[in-house]
Each structure stands twice: as C-alpha cells, then as structure tokens.
Amino acid sequence: MNILDEFDTIAAIATPMGMGGVGVIRISGDKAFEIIEKIFTNPKFEPRKFNHGWIVENEKQIDEVIVLPFFAPNSYTGENVIEIQCHGGVNVVKNILNLVLKNGARMAEKGEFTKRAFLNKRMDLSQAEAVADIIHSKTSEFAKVSVKNLSGVLKEKINEIRNEIFEILSKITAGIDFPEDVKEPEYDYLVSGFEKIISSIDAVLSGAETSNIFRQGASVAIIGKPNVGKSSLFNALLNLDRAIVTDIAGTTRDVIKETLDLGIPVTLVDTAGIRDGVNEVDKVEQIGIEYSKQSLDEADLVLFVYDAAQGVTDEDKEVLELLKDKKYILIANKSDLMSGKPNADAVYLSALTGEGVNELKQKLTEKVCDINPESLDFVTNTRQQECLKKARHSIEQALLASQLRELQDLISIDVKSAILALDELTGELITDDILNNIFDHFCIGK
Ligand code: GDP
Question: How many helices and strands, by DSSP H and E, does the chain display?
C-alpha cells in the first residue's frame, strides 16, 4: 500500500467475526458522514452524541443500530469516523459492511486505521506498535505494559534522549557556523554529555531482554535423570495430568510442551531423562533422549531436578556438566521423603504434595526476566532495539572522537546519525517499506 494515496474513505469490521452481542463496523475518511447519510434513518449527528436508528437498503431494514460519530480531528484516525454498532451475527455485520462499501468506501487493509492515526500525528510509531502489542498480547501483564507504551511512556523517554543529543549538536553546530561569535564547546563537556546519553540509552535497552521474553515467551526445560519426578513436577506446575507418571525409569518417551502463564508466557518442556548407557535403553527412549538434548539447547532456562532423598549423585553431576553455560534452577524433588540437611543452593519441593511449587514459580519468573516485569514501565520490540543500538553506536563513536579531540565537524556527523536513528524509532523519519511491514502485522479493522 502506498502511503501517499491512501486518504480515501476506508471501512472494516472492527470486532472478531463470529456470533456475539455486538458487531462494530468502522468507517474513516472524508466521505464517512456522506456514506452513513445514505444508509441510516437518523443521520443528524452532533459531536459526542450517538444516534439510534435503522440501517436500510432500498427502504428495506437491515438492522437496528447505534451510530457513533467522531468529527475530525477528534477521532482515532484523526479523520471523520463513523462507528456502527449492530447485532453481532456474522451475516448482519457483513451485510452492513457490503452496503458501506457499495456506497463509496474501500475495504481497509490490515492496520490501516492505526496507520492513519500515525500519519495524521495522533500517535507516534511506538504508540502505534503498542496497539498491535495490546491486541496480540498473550498475557495480562504484557497487555498492561503495552498500555503504558500506548500512553506514550516510551515516546517520552526517546524524546528526552533526543533532546539531550540535540542540545549538544546545536552547540557544536553554532561553534562551526559562527566561529567568530560562538566558542566551540569544550571537549570535556562533550565527553560527559555523550557518556550521559549512552547511559540513558542503556537504561531504555536494559528491559530489552524482558521485553523480548514478554513478547515471545520463554522456553523452560525440565531436565534430570529418570525417575526423579520431572513429569510429576511438570504436572504440578501446570495443575494437570498430562505427562504419564510411573515409577519405571524412562517412561516419558517424548517431549511434552505446555504453556504456563506466569505473567510472561512460559513454554514448559518435559523431557525424557538424560542418561548414559543408552544401549540398554530401547530405541524409542533413545529418540526421546536426543530430543531432550535439543530442548536443552533451545531452553532459556532449565529446571534441573534431582531426588532430594538420594542427594546429588554422580549421575546427576554428569547431567549438571551439560548445564554449565545455561541459566538453571537446582531442584531437590521428593522433599517429603527427605531427612537430613537441605542443600542451600537448591529449591526443595515435593511434586507429589505440592509443597514448595509456588515458591518455584516465583523463582522461575525472577530468573527468566532480567528485571521484575512489574517494574517495567515500557516495552521495546526488536525494531526499536535496533534503532536504539544504532543510536548508541553513533554516540560511542562521537565519544571516542571527543576523547581524541578530533575536529568537531567530524563529531557532528555521528551525532546527527544518532538523531536519525531515534527519528526512525519514533517514525519521524521512516520509509514506506518499514511502515508497511509494521502495519502488516495488525488485523483488519484496527
Ligand atoms: P520422571 O521419570 O523424572 O519424569 O519421574 P516421574 O514424574 O515419572 O516420577 C517417578 C516416580 O516418583 C513416580 O512414582 C512418582 O509418583 C514419584 N514422585 C514424583 N515426585 C515425587 C515427590 O515429590 N515425592 C514422592 N514421594 N514421590 C514422587
């Protein structure tokens, strides 16, 4: 879609298709009022007041509806917008949309309403992306933090950083352009200014790992030798009976996955026990063992389970060797069977009685996220992180050049690049391709 010729009038169904109490058809553009006047029995609108009446086609009643008018620029898109609330049946909604299209609107593309809101400066790009995040959020925590982005928290942070950079750039430029009247800034001033900017960028980037985990979820593998209670723990964490639990070693023949909502979506993977001497083990289990090594590689975090009653055995230590480069939590299961002193490094729990399982859930969230999700004020996506990294790199170059007392003319080139990278983040400076790519991830009607 070309952003230059898109200010015609668009329409789409804004609610999910299916049976529901209400269906909403949204129209946006210059002709929104003209179109509704042709098909609605009560079209005298006033701002902030809804009208009740019938949608009609050739004097035939289609549905009894409520119509909400939004007069430009006070609407979601910044244009004239009409929202028709009708009964929620699939065919009613479709019939009304068809009628709207016949009367002069074009079917909206994915994300086109939000794209117009951005192009009409009702929101910046980080807020527009927040709309997609809210729609797609898999957990309530992610939805909450995306709403903070929508309200402009990230936008504010980026603008603050941009202002800091801009202030330094203005001083450098004044020194270059008016050497007689304005002294060029001291190099020490530049060094400390750039250092401060780098730490401001780092502060925004510090939540990146957590943001990514929020978005994609984390993969957590349960690893340990057979019969220590991995499947039982899997079930206890999920409150279900999915994995087969037996007391014969090697009964989990496959990798079983389930999603656990801990604020962040966690994919929990129950694996067949890793153990040596696979030649004694039947073929099916051997395949399962391969799977568990693969799950181990892919996991963001490992729950390493051993039998609390037996303590950490040599066999456990061998498996632990595989984990030396991984984030893991040591779990002593079957605490109900244990007597003696607990190992301070391990989480003691009983998958059988449920004791200690909630404490594990809490620890799991802490380990998976680099910072507490509740303290997160905003999230960033990979596009935004790339822009921030580009800006950081340019400022680092400028810092280095300032430490080496290089010509300020040269330093200003890097400083300008940093500003451009931030402008790309907020959408001040953006190409059609990037924009289309962003809005293609939306759904129709938003
Ligand atoms: P896996 O092979 O590691 O997946 O182990 P399972 O989950 O299949 O459990 C092996 C056996 O240990 C089963 O008989 C379970 O009932 C038992 N078991 C698992 N967790 C506990 C626990 O916390 N306490 C006790 N007493 N038994 C457990």
Answer: 15, 12
